[in-house]
Amino acid sequence: MASPAGDILSEPRDHNSGEPLVEIRDLSVDYRTGRKTAVSVVKDINLDLYPGESVALVGESGCGKTTLALAILRMLPKLGVISKGSIRFRRRSGEMMDVLALGKEELRRFRWAESSVVYQGAMNSLNPLMRIQAQFVETIRAHRKDMSSARMHERAAELLKLVQLDPERVLPAYPHELSGGMRQRVLLALGLVLDPQLVVLDEPTTALDILTQRSVVEVLRRLQSELHFTMVFVTHDLPLAAELADRVATMYGGRIVELCDVHETFYNPRHPYTIGLIKAVPPVTGDPLEVLSIAGSPPGFGDMPAGCAFHPRCAFAQERCAVDEPPLEPVDPGHDAACFFADEMSLERKPVVADV
Amino acid sequence: MSEATQRELLMRLENIGQVFNTKRGDVRAVDDVNLDLHAGRVVCLVGESGSGKTTTARIAAGLNSPTDGAVWFDGRDVTSLGRRDRGGYRRAVQYIHQDPYASLNPTRTVESTLVAPMRKHRMVRGRRAAHERAEELLKEVDLTPPGNFLPKYPHQLSGGQRQRVSVARALTMNPRLIIADEATSMLDVSIRISMLRMLGKLRDDLDVGFLFITHDLALAKYFGWGGETAVMYLGRIVERGPTARVINEPAHPYTRALRQAIPEPDPTLTRNKQGAMLRSAEIPNLLAIPHGCPFHPRCPMAQPGVCDVDRPDLFPVGGRADHTAACVRLDDVAAEMPLSEALVSANGEGTVPAEGGATT
């Protein structure tokens, strides 16, 4: 089935191939802290992203999840450097390109036409002085010089309808005239206007009201099933991952410590950190469950503990954990975890009768 | 209810209203709100932005004076208090802000942040006693050893540590009532829970009462389980009752919509929640509050000619005096807006692949 957006702007995509859209190998990112000093923020990431799938990067603040997401698009802040590894991206033509080798102009084209990013904080990403209409036109014109103005307007209207906004009302408006949820959906539409193959979202629903969050989530889910783009989203909110992800990558200390299907993540997690994160979420439905916090906080990137980075906070840590770093290895088919004792780990949540 | 009434009543908000005069007209941010706050008990105030929950909290804390109604503290109208008693009220009621990055003075060390108010209000005698009390308070909020934290500036602390310092600062006044306005919403999940645990300790051990404001029903359920929850919409309370009932068996269509909107840490359950779609995700403007039931333009159950005519009062739910909701169609809610657990167990139009639940 051709996607509604695909047949307008580009030739239909090949959805048959089981080949990854993005291949990330041994990727490390450093942040420079001085003229000759740097801290390692993301380390040895191996991750394949498949066409049409949705991958969540979860973890506490300071675990490197946003850095990894931005590195895929080479959108790191000035001090961030990809120090090692490779990122390969399958073009629509099927040819693999080396994202790290792209020149400035190629990178610019890659960023909107093949991929896009939707940032947290919808107000800061829209130009407050431009009507929504103009922001669409500017984006389209920069990449599709041959498109007529009428066609651009039509395209913008189509996308806005897809995110359940009324184009008549939204296109002539300035960002401040729209609510937070509407702005977030405008940004989504803008990110999709050039029909990218990959969309990166940083905390897509944070700071939105609950009912608005829900509508953004539903719009995202529908868009993805209709347009078949690959989605990577960063969130600290585990329930959002349960809601939207096909696979979940748990990050800690700059590494992926667990990677598996979303159902495995929530029903059969094997890394103590993932288990800890899930146990820290109070559920809304049903009887209250025991809610536990993970003692301590994530290590700073300057002073990463030896061995497993999580061992100082881990209730199951043994001597070995302070010495050797556990590799990310399969524990079940399609389920990788970086813990020496992954086989012994399981999630159990006890109901509580009393209060806190 | 019976337990609550036995507890000491700290504060009563009676028919509170707040109108803000703006250039574009009068905004009724809070309308006819009644709340009782007891020692050692939690009242959760839940709602979206613009529901009036923060304005209500500010009124309770004495930071806003209401345009209607009265705030009673220890049985006295706070507007009638003399200078001395007013000081006592302001000390006994402490407010914890949402953003610990903004609420701490960046040029003060933790020690100075804690000692200054104690000295100013003469809570302690002498520098040495103040220092000791500051150490004690840091232990109380799990910042140990205190010696490590006293000389630090806010920028040297993490978000969770800063919020603990805000709590310690509130505790300098030996408060009897703490008003926590989204106090944990900026914190990471795991830190959030340890923070709530700490607040729970104050509630249970020191008998501090709480007005706990949150947009997150899961947190209200967790922190306020034994207490009361009031749901606000466009300035009014639309449902109230024991937390366990309001959250597990919500009666008002709005509360049900909120319940259904919250994602859960369970893929099968959460993906079945999409049942209850509102007619609009946008909150109406406070300048033009809809006629009749203010929720009717978004309510999937709204009946023309009924819901858009009169504003419903709070009616008892299932004949209970302690659980009320402002809706004329309460009897039909369960059938027309089923909750997700019902959907899951009925295994209706679930969109989740079958292998999903099998692994539990």
Can you put this structure into words, describing what you see?
The complex is a heterodimer of chains A (356) and B (360). With 356 residues, chain A is an alpha/beta fold. Chain A contains twelve helices and twelve strands. Chain A has helices at residues 6-9, 65-72, 104-114, 122-125, 132-143, 149-162, 167-170, 180-192, 210-227, 238-244, 262-267, 272-279; strands spanning 22-32, 38-49, 54-58, 80-90, 96-98, 115-118, 198-202, 230-235, 247-252, 255-261, 329-332, 335-337. In chain A, the strands form two sheets. In chain A, strands 6-7-8-3-9-10-12-11 form an eight-stranded mixed β-sheet, with helices on both faces. In chain A, a hairpin with a 2-residue loop joins strand 9 (247-252) and strand 10 (255-261). The termini of chain A are far apart. The model of chain A is unreliable at 1-16 (pLDDT under 50). With 360 residues, chain B is of the alpha/beta class. Helices cover 37% and strands 22% of the residues of chain B. Chain B is built from 16 helices and twelve strands. An eight-stranded mixed β-sheet of chain B has the order 6-7-8-3-9-10-12-11, sandwiched between helices. In chain B, helix 5 packs across helix 6 (126-140) and helix 6 packs across helix 8. Residues 345-360 of chain B have low confidence and may be disordered. Classes of the chains: A alpha/beta (356), B alpha/beta (360). Chains A and B meet through helix 9, helix 10, helix 11 and helix 12 of A and helix 9, helix 10, helix 12 and helix 13 of B.
